[in-house]
Amino acid sequence: MAAIRFVNATQEDVEAITDCIAAAYAKARETISDLPDVTAGVEQEIADHQVVLAWTEVGLGGVIIYSQSNDALKVINLAVAQQAQGQGIAGKLLKIAEDAARRNGCTHLILRTHRLMQDTRAIYAHLGWCETEVAGNSVAMSKYL
Hints:
By secondary structure, the protein is of the alpha+beta class.
């Protein structure tokens, strides 16, 4: 497996992050008509939240955006570019968030995904996340530390 370098995002990374997120969600966009635009507002995400990038030999392979809310760490977005999938990047980015949660005294992590994103839900389940609510097309998941 090629080396993966993890760094905190800066405003200079906005275009690369936007492209990575768009590439990661491209396949889902073909079949899920009500998938929200998760590429908008990257500049503000970097300003307001923790954004960690996973750089590979071929470019930006993945990104995680998260922030603390009381005793929970909320994963706002996790995206792995299609060309980088299968390298364990999602798990490694989530581990970075988990480590941050522990350091900050959080008891659990939370996120929301789309009900029709079955592969995404399966990956989270494989990594120890549990579904806590399904409401419409939104699925809430959590992982206790």
